[in-house]
């Protein structure tokens, strides 16, 4: 339970940092809540990939740097999907 809470906290910070690193265009989420959620998703992705590859033992979350990288990846994927969706609608 504590590992999940820690991942959420790190994900929040990672989402904010990732948004500063990759501000993106108007297609990407710029709201505080969406950025936080994508950062948390990025932290969970980084934790999962780290545990699968053996970098982190079970019940250990990713660190801040890995979470920021995960959040940047999630933001990039989300921005790409949003961009494609808007271009096909027009």
From TrEMBL:
For this UniProt entry, which segments traverse the membrane? 6-22, 34-56, 62-81
- Per the record, GO CC terms? plasma membrane
Record keywords: Cell membrane, Membrane, Transmembrane, Transmembrane helix
Q: Name one Pfam family in it.
A: Transgly_assoc
Checking InterPro entries in the record gives: Transgly_assoc
- Membrane topology value: Multi-pass membrane protein
Give the subcellular location. Answer: Cell membrane
Q: Which family does it belong to?
A: Belongs to the UPF0410 family.
UniProt-recorded name of the protein: GlsB/YeaQ/YmgE family stress response membrane protein
> Which species is listed as the source?
Methylobacterium nonmethylotrophicum
